[in-house]
Amino acid sequence: MPEPDEALIKVEAIAPNRGETFLLERPGPRLLPGKDIAGLVVQAATDGSGPGIGTRVVGHPAQGGWAEYAAVPTHSLAALPDSIDSVRAAALPLAGITALRLLRTAGFPAGRRMLLTGASGGVGHYVTELAVGAGAELTAVTATPVRGERLAELGATVVHEVAAAQGPFDVVLESTGGPDLPVALSKVRPGGTLVWFGQASRTPATLDFFQLLGGPERVTIQHFHYAGAPYGSDLAALVRLVEQRRLHPEIGRVTDWARTADTLVDLRERRIRGKAVLLTGGAR
């Protein structure tokens, strides 16, 4: 039963995230996965907030999106224009919100040299398109040339090891952790910033104080995590960017949700470039 500030959405498309696959390793009794959805409002919020019945929306619930129907707080919904289908919409929330908030944290991109590690996924795609579009000189680190092709088309300089990036950089956006983080830190200019927003390697990073003394001085290391509702205004901004053709979701697989298990494995093993979208039926 939805809460008074929640709308009931008939889910048409779901976009699982790689991080969600890790939650399935040790699922708790209350785990209800699913944070990126698009669909149709079939029951409006009883408190009068949010979109009305029949409105097509994109949503970012805290959980429970992998379902035929999902209750989503109205503060985490945005209406969709007819020009944006449910597949592209579902690919927006977590990765797109992360990219927007990450770039806000990093500061105005125009004219700045930026390094982005772990750039192959959805966040990396959105950060690259938004940052380059705003005038940044961005270097993206991807595991393979194939994964870097689209980023190069968007205007990034692509390398395949952090050590190969030609610094110094005003801002480093670091998402892999492990041994890459200290190497990325060494690429920051004196007085610059490293924003640490992920640990895709699943390996803790080790920093040596004395090694840092031989590198850039007065570097700021800032921890970042995207989460924090409300999400509606950011979702609306992403929708506008797609509608204006300034943001183009990269979708590597669209399939029926009967193939959820295979898709989750392929996401986890990085066999899908960009986002994967699962259709529940009736998607537009």
TrEMBL record:
UniProt keyword list: NADP, Oxidoreductase
Record-annotated Enoyl reductase (ER) domain positions: 1-278
InterPro entries: ADH-like_C, ADH-like_N, ER, GroES-like_sf, NAD(P)-bd_dom_sf
Entries under Pfam families matching the protein: ADH_N, ADH_zinc_N
Name of the protein: Zinc-binding dehydrogenase
Species of the source: Actinomadura yumaensis
Lineage start: Bacteria, Bacillati, Actinomycetota, Actinomycetes, Streptosporangiales
